[in-house]
Design brief:
alpha/beta; 5-stranded parallel beta sheet; 149 residues
Length: 149
Amino acid sequence: MVHKILVGVDESENSEKLIRHARDIQKKFDCELVVYHSIGQQDYLISNPSISPNYILPLYYDFQERDIIRSREILNRAKTIIGEDDPKVETRLVTGSTADDYAINACKEEDFDLVIIGQKRDHRIWDHLFGSVSQNILNRAECDVMVIK
Protein backbone atom coordinates (compact mmCIF):
# COMPACT_ATOMS: atom_id res chain seq x y z
CA MET A 1 0.00 0.00 0.00
CA VAL A 2 1.30 3.44 -0.90
CA HIS A 3 0.50 6.37 1.39
CA LYS A 4 3.01 9.01 0.33
CA ILE A 5 4.87 9.56 -2.97
CA LEU A 6 7.81 11.87 -3.67
CA VAL A 7 8.68 12.77 -7.25
CA GLY A 8 11.64 14.89 -8.32
CA VAL A 9 11.30 16.91 -11.50
CA ASP A 10 13.51 19.09 -13.65
CA GLU A 11 13.28 20.80 -17.03
CA SER A 12 13.76 17.58 -19.00
CA GLU A 13 11.13 16.11 -21.31
CA ASN A 14 11.08 12.99 -19.12
CA SER A 15 9.66 14.96 -16.18
CA GLU A 16 6.22 15.12 -17.78
CA LYS A 17 6.18 11.33 -17.96
CA LEU A 18 7.27 11.13 -14.30
CA ILE A 19 4.49 13.45 -13.21
CA ARG A 20 1.85 11.52 -15.15
CA HIS A 21 2.98 8.18 -13.65
CA ALA A 22 3.07 9.67 -10.16
CA ARG A 23 -0.39 11.18 -10.58
CA ASP A 24 -1.83 7.85 -11.81
CA ILE A 25 -0.41 6.04 -8.77
CA GLN A 26 -1.56 8.83 -6.45
CA LYS A 27 -5.12 8.58 -7.76
CA LYS A 28 -5.13 4.78 -7.57
CA PHE A 29 -4.08 4.74 -3.90
CA ASP A 30 -5.69 8.06 -2.93
CA CYS A 31 -2.43 9.05 -1.26
CA GLU A 32 -0.27 12.14 -0.80
CA LEU A 33 1.92 13.29 -3.67
CA VAL A 34 4.82 15.71 -3.27
CA VAL A 35 6.48 17.03 -6.43
CA TYR A 36 9.79 18.78 -5.83
CA HIS A 37 12.52 20.56 -7.70
CA SER A 38 15.91 21.17 -6.12
CA ILE A 39 18.12 24.13 -6.91
CA GLY A 40 21.04 22.66 -5.00
CA GLN A 41 24.09 24.63 -4.04
CA GLN A 42 25.99 27.22 -6.06
CA ASP A 43 29.45 26.56 -4.62
CA TYR A 44 31.14 26.69 -8.03
CA LEU A 45 31.18 30.48 -7.99
CA ILE A 46 33.01 30.67 -4.68
CA SER A 47 35.65 28.15 -5.73
CA ASN A 48 36.44 29.85 -9.06
CA PRO A 49 39.69 31.83 -8.55
CA SER A 50 39.22 33.73 -11.82
CA ILE A 51 36.25 35.62 -10.37
CA SER A 52 37.15 38.64 -8.30
CA PRO A 53 35.90 38.41 -4.68
CA ASN A 54 34.03 41.69 -5.25
CA TYR A 55 31.78 39.97 -7.81
CA ILE A 56 31.08 36.64 -6.15
CA LEU A 57 28.15 37.72 -4.00
CA PRO A 58 26.29 39.72 -6.66
CA LEU A 59 26.78 36.94 -9.22
CA TYR A 60 25.68 34.31 -6.70
CA TYR A 61 22.44 36.13 -5.97
CA ASP A 62 21.81 36.78 -9.64
CA PHE A 63 22.18 33.08 -10.43
CA GLN A 64 20.09 32.14 -7.41
CA GLU A 65 17.26 34.48 -8.43
CA ARG A 66 17.27 33.07 -11.96
CA ASP A 67 17.32 29.53 -10.58
CA ILE A 68 14.34 30.27 -8.34
CA ILE A 69 12.36 31.74 -11.25
CA ARG A 70 13.21 28.75 -13.46
CA SER A 71 12.33 26.34 -10.62
CA ARG A 72 8.96 27.97 -10.09
CA GLU A 73 8.27 27.61 -13.81
CA ILE A 74 9.14 23.90 -13.59
CA LEU A 75 6.79 23.43 -10.62
CA ASN A 76 4.02 25.44 -12.29
CA ARG A 77 4.33 23.19 -15.33
CA ALA A 78 3.99 20.20 -12.98
CA LYS A 79 0.80 21.69 -11.50
CA THR A 80 -0.59 22.16 -15.01
CA ILE A 81 0.13 18.51 -15.90
CA ILE A 82 -1.44 17.30 -12.63
CA GLY A 83 -4.55 19.31 -13.39
CA GLU A 84 -7.29 19.73 -10.82
CA ASP A 85 -6.61 21.08 -7.37
CA ASP A 86 -6.13 18.24 -4.94
CA PRO A 87 -5.36 18.83 -1.26
CA LYS A 88 -3.22 15.69 -1.28
CA VAL A 89 -0.86 17.14 -3.93
CA GLU A 90 1.93 19.52 -2.95
CA THR A 91 4.82 21.13 -4.81
CA ARG A 92 8.09 22.10 -3.13
CA LEU A 93 10.99 24.26 -4.19
CA VAL A 94 14.04 22.84 -2.41
CA THR A 95 17.07 25.07 -1.90
CA GLY A 96 20.45 24.30 -0.39
CA SER A 97 20.25 20.55 -0.97
CA THR A 98 20.94 18.39 -3.99
CA ALA A 99 18.02 16.49 -5.50
CA ASP A 100 19.34 13.13 -4.34
CA ASP A 101 20.19 14.23 -0.79
CA TYR A 102 16.74 15.77 -0.43
CA ALA A 103 14.96 12.60 -1.61
CA ILE A 104 17.07 10.35 0.61
CA ASN A 105 16.49 12.50 3.70
CA ALA A 106 12.79 13.03 2.97
CA CYS A 107 12.25 9.27 2.76
CA LYS A 108 13.59 8.91 6.28
CA GLU A 109 12.18 12.04 7.88
CA GLU A 110 8.74 12.17 6.25
CA ASP A 111 7.94 8.47 5.78
CA PHE A 112 7.58 8.42 2.01
CA ASP A 113 6.69 4.96 0.69
CA LEU A 114 7.79 5.60 -2.88
CA VAL A 115 10.17 7.90 -4.72
CA ILE A 116 9.70 8.29 -8.47
CA ILE A 117 12.70 9.55 -10.38
CA GLY A 118 13.88 9.83 -13.96
CA GLN A 119 17.09 8.62 -15.46
CA LYS A 120 18.83 11.00 -17.82
CA ARG A 121 20.43 9.48 -20.85
CA ASP A 122 23.32 11.95 -21.15
CA HIS A 123 25.65 10.15 -18.74
CA ARG A 124 28.42 12.61 -18.07
CA ILE A 125 31.89 11.70 -16.83
CA TRP A 126 30.88 13.18 -13.45
CA ASP A 127 28.09 10.57 -13.18
CA HIS A 128 30.51 7.75 -13.91
CA LEU A 129 32.94 8.94 -11.25
CA PHE A 130 30.53 9.97 -8.48
CA GLY A 131 27.21 8.39 -9.42
CA SER A 132 24.12 9.99 -10.90
CA VAL A 133 21.20 11.38 -8.93
CA SER A 134 19.09 8.34 -9.76
CA GLN A 135 21.89 5.91 -8.77
CA ASN A 136 22.39 7.66 -5.45
CA ILE A 137 18.68 7.57 -4.64
CA LEU A 138 18.39 3.92 -5.71
CA ASN A 139 21.33 2.91 -3.53
CA ARG A 140 20.62 5.01 -0.45
CA ALA A 141 16.87 5.65 -0.12
CA GLU A 142 15.09 3.76 2.64
CA CYS A 143 11.88 3.35 0.66
CA ASP A 144 10.87 1.91 -2.70
CA VAL A 145 12.19 3.71 -5.77
CA MET A 146 10.66 3.70 -9.24
CA VAL A 147 12.89 4.81 -12.11
CA ILE A 148 11.17 6.02 -15.28
CA LYS A 149 13.21 6.01 -18.48
